[in-house]
Write a structure and sequence with these properties.
heterodimer; A: 347 residues; mainly alpha; ABC transporter involved in vitamin B12 uptake, BtuC; two-stranded antiparallel sheet; two-stranded antiparallel ribbon; 4 strands; globular; B: 393 residues; alpha/beta; Rossmann fold; 2 domains; 8-stranded mixed β-sheet; 13 helices; transmembrane (chain A); Amino acid/amide ABC transporter membrane protein 2 (HAAT family) (chain A)
Amino acid sequence: MRVATAKESYAADQGLFKTDTQKVWFGLLLAALVLFPLHGSNYWMFLAVLVMINIISTTGLNILTGYTGQVSLGHAAFMAVGAYTVAFFDGRFDTPVLLNLVLAGAVAAFIGYLVGLPSLRIKGLYLAIATLAASVILGFIFLNWTPVTGGLRGLNVPTATIAGIELATPDRLYWLVMPITVIMVLAAKNLFRTRVGRAFIAIRDRDISAEIIGISLLKYKLTSFAISSFYAGVAGGLWAYLFRVVTPESFPALASIFFLAAVIVGGAGTIIGGIFGAVFMTLIPEFLKLAATAVVPWFPDAPIYLAPVRAIIFGLLIIGFLIFEPMGLAEMWRRTRRYFALWPFRT
Amino acid sequence: MTRLSRRAFSQLGLGAALVSTASGRAFAQAPELVIGAANPMSGVFAFAGVEGFEGGRDHFEFVNRNGGVGGRRIRYVNEDSGYRVDNAVAIFTRITSQHQTPVFFGDSTGFQKAINPELNRRGSTVMAGASFASEIDNPQAFPNQWIPGPNYSDQFRVLLRYIASQKRGASVVFVYSDTEFGRDPIAAGEAEARRLELNVVEKIVTQPGSVDVSGDVLKIRRRNPDYVIFHGYVLQPIPEFMAQARQAGMTSRFMGTFYSTDTVLMNRAGAAADGYMGVSCYNFDANAQGAQVEAIRAANVGKTRTHAYYQGWTNAMLAVEVLRRTLAANEELNAVNMMKHARGLKNYDTGGVFGVPISMVNNSFPHGRVYQYSAADKVLKPASDWITISASA
């Protein structure tokens, strides 16, 4: 049983890491992230990069949906804005990678700010449809603003290059994506130790009460939209560097559902939940695919028959989570931690 | 009990050594040639992905039964992409990181465009796939890919040349889906129509899965064109267009490109599809002769295969031929060498899969034929001769 976690100040109680154990685990996680490329094949590096991009995007949506209570079905469109921004600036002006990513986040944040305006009047399903409509409008722009977006053909994205080193392969791109992911996730965690983050939570819990105690709904709802879209924009920019082509079909509305599902499955309103959700939603289909591939030597037609089975299993897993653990993977993680923290006593 | 003398023991040992050496030689095989594929086995394009996969698989089995390529067996590694670009890229990355993969089959234009820079960077893998996009038919931008037939623009040109041969100055309406796939050949089609002095009197854009087409049918009716060409659809909403047009008493002829020209799909549409004309590069003649079509028939007794199956078979056949030529020239299996031999395919006999000997022009094989569907016989019958589009077009 863990003892001596009592805090003597508010600052200590609000610390990013509340116990030494957490600090040790975080150090080990960082070490694992640094050492992972030594052992990961090209494929695993690709998956790692994809997972991290999805973690950034899911964390962004989690800030908006999980922490501020605003539903958005336009998240993938904000990613697309980021991807197009990177493709445009890098392709047209050969601007530095990090500047492109900041611009991707900034442009997406601005668009997100505008899209968030209806959130002052509407919420819930109505807001979801409004954000979906915004994504349709953005899709139309991607398709028809040909001088900037390349229209139907889209834009090819140059290889990310930092200090003359081409990040052409996932194992190299990892060194760009991994630190950005760690910084952005920590920044999100930190956000909820600030006045702004607490305002978001207050709005989520009861917006009328929040307004009564002096929280400006206008300011904070739009800030939440902007921050969430900034995350999506950066994720979209990294996505563009990974796939190196952006077309109007790269970010369908279904991708927004993917991120919403990741937030719910992982656990809305917790940073670790966004991480778990993104990892789950990205890797489970991949593992199911590996399982299907493994039986091919004995069952050559497996790809035909197992493909729909895979989709069904994935769907059932999501439904299972919603039924048996509506608080998501984060709650399971919390229970596990509590078990070890309180052992030998029952939780 | 018979005692084993030292000499007998030595003889047995020698014999065993000889047998083991001989059997060792017999079992020593050249390494397999791995061909990777990302096919959509689930999702909206699963119907085509499964057929495409089976076409490739059946051809490779046929090749392996007949001794492989230069004595090396083909191993076909396929995974379900779900028709998603990121999935297909993941599959490409995984398969190529696990195996040396000289040839890879892609599932879509989006994926083939997305992976192109990586393909060029690696220089070790060539790609073919499900896409007939005109953009990919460009050796400068896509030096390591080929299209297993005519690109969409050339398919349009085949249809328009057929129309010009039937009626001078005919009026034509283009109906296409509001997708990258749908818009691909429209500009080239308009240019070709002008050259042939045909009148494109209307262009109608619809959603790809559109079902309520009454307004669009009204537009066509107002124009009352000689021909209506559909593009960018798999099947829907073509039968609905045709049924409503017939009810309205229109006499226009309806036509379509590759993915909407298929016996299986037409059979599903039934009587509404009667008289529909479409372009294909593959030979649907039941009496076609040749080693490849006979192998297709042998592998599919009692089955009717879709276009996608033929496409999968053709991609596999071309891949095998390219590998065979590269290995026969004793050259390394890299993209430069393989594409050199792919571009060397001139007047290549496809064993009946195409009705004419084929030649690669740019990255494609610009040969096509117009077929007409007969609902009574449930078959596509040739309506034109084979038409080849020259590079200058």
